[in-house]
Amino acid sequence: KNKINMSYIAGPRIKEIHITPIAIVDPPLLNAAGLHAPYALRTVLEIVTEDNISGISEIPGTKDIDAALEESKKLLIGQDVFQLNQIRHILEQAFGTDSVADRGLAPWDQRKLVHIFSAVEVACMDIMGKVTGKPIVDLLGGKMRDRVPFSAYLFYKYEGAGGELGFGLNPNATGWDAARQKSALNPDEIVAQAKAMCKEFGFQSIKLKGGVFEPRQEVDAVIALRQAFGEKYPLRIDPNALWTVETSIKYGKEMEPYLEYLEDPVRGQENMALVRKALKTPLATNMCTTSFGEIPRSIEIGAEDIILSDHHFWGGLRASMTLTGICGTFGRELSMHSNSHLGISLAAMVHLGAALPKMTYALDTHYPWQSDEIIIGGRMKFEDGSVEVPSEPGLGVELDRVALAALHQNYLACGLTKRNDEIEMQKINPDWTFKAVRW
Ligand code: GKR
Ligand code: MG
C-alpha cells in the first residue's frame, strides 16, 4: 500500500545537451532601440536523458548566453530533470544572480542567469511532461482555460530596410503577407496593418509599439485605431520608456478614453509611480519592474498595475507562476511580454497562459511577424486571436530537425551574434543614436 516506485523517484538523468543558435527572418520593425535586423537570433536547447527522452526550449539568441549554456553542460549532465530547484542552485553558483543593472537600457532583457535557467527549465519540464504523460500546463498546477488569447502587435516599419520580407519583395502578396511587407509610417498605414493582422489572426485587442516617432504622431495612430475599430477592441501603446513624465501625463490624459493600459511610458519605477498617480489608465511594464528584487519598491510606491512577465526574462515558467501569485497578493495583474520568436517559445507561453489564475489582458506575441518555423507541422494556428493549449505530454511540440539545421545555417551565414537595433538603424540613418529618454 502506498508503495513508492523508486525508479520514478530516481528521475530521468540528463545525458546530452544540444545548443543550436538559429537566425530567423525578421521584418524591418522600428522601435525605441532602433530597427530590427533582417534576422532575429534565437537559441534552441535540446536536453536528452539517459533513456533517450528529449526535451526542447527556445530563448532569445546571444553569443554570450550561448557560451554560458555551453559551459553549463558539464554541470548539468547527470542531473535529474525533476530536480529543478537543485539545478537552479547549481546554475546560480556558477553564474551568479543577475543584477538590475545587468538588464540594460534596451526594451528587452539581457541578463544571463534568467535566460539560461529558462532554457533549461522549459526543456526539463518538456521531459517531465513526457515521463508523466502530462502537458506542461498540468505541471504548473493545471488548466484554467482551453485557449489563450493574444493581442495584435503593430509596428511602424522602415520602407526598404530589412530581410526577405523587406518592402516590395513580393508584389503579388495579398492580405496579411502584403501588409507585413509594406511600410507603415503613418496612422492610416498603421490602421491598414491592424486590419490585415486582425483579419488573419482574429485578434480582439491591439497594441502599438511606440517610442519611434514624436508622441503626437503615435497618439494620432491610437485615435485612428479607435475610430477604425471602435470600443470593442481594447488598445495599448508602448513607447518603451522614451517619454518624460510630463509627456506621458499630457498624452496619457488624451488617450484615457481609448486605452486599456499604457505600457512603460517612462523610465524607472519612480517616474512610473508619478505618471500612475496622474492617470486613470492602468500602467503596464516590462521595463521598470523586471525582477523579483524590484517588487518591494514597486509595491511601496505603486509603480504599475500590470507586470508583463516573460518566462525567458523572469527565469522560467515556475518563476512566472510565483510572480502571478505575488501580483495577486498585491492587487497587480499579470500579462505577458514578447519578442520575435518561434513556436517552441509560443507553446511555452500558451502553457503558462493557460495556467494563470486570471487572464484579464490578452498576451503579447510577435509570432505573426515571423514566417520561419522549427516545429513539426509548421506554424502554430491562431483562431479568434487565441491558441489552443496543447494536450500532448510536455510542451506538445516536436523539433523539425531539417528546419532547425537550415536556420542554423542562416545563423552562421548572417554573421550576427547579438541583437543590436541601433547598428541596424544607423545603416539607414548614420546620425541616429539610442536615447534612454527622447520626448
Ligand atoms: O521587438 O522591437 C521589439 C520590441 O520593442 C521588443 O523588443 C520589446 O522588448 O516587445 C517588447 C516590449 O513590449 O517592450
Ligand atoms: Mg513593452
What does this structure look like?
The protein is built from 15 helices and 14 strands. The strands form four sheets. A seven-stranded parallel β-sheet has the order 7-8-9-10-11-12-13. The model has no long low-confidence stretch (mean pLDDT 94). The chain has helices at 6-10, 63-76, 84-95, 112-132, 136-139, 175-181, 187-201, 215-229, 245-255, 269-278, 295-301, 317-329, 343-355, 401-414, 421-428, and strands at 14-25, 30-31, 34-35, 39-49, 54-60, 147-149, 152-154, 206-209, 235-238, 259-263, 283-285, 306-309, 333-336, 386-388. The radius of gyration is 21 Å and the shape is globular. 51% of the residues are buried. Helices cover 38% and strands 15% of the residues. It is α/β, with parallel strands linked by helices. Helix 11 (295-301) links the parallel strand 11 and strand 12.
What order do the helices and strands come in, and which of them pair?
Elements: H1 6-10, E1 14-25, E2 30-31, E3 34-35, E4 39-49, E5 54-60, H2 63-76, H3 84-95, H4 112-132, H5 136-139, E6 147-149, E7 152-154, H6 175-181, H7 187-201, E8 206-209, H8 215-229, E9 235-238, H9 245-255, E10 259-263, H10 269-278, E11 283-285, H11 295-301, E12 306-309, H12 317-329, E13 333-336, H13 343-355, E14 386-388, H14 401-414, H15 421-428
Parallel strand pairs: 7-8, 8-9, 9-10, 10-11, 11-12, 12-13
Antiparallel strand pairs: 1-4, 2-3, 4-5, 6-14
The structure holds D-glucarate and magnesium ion (MG).
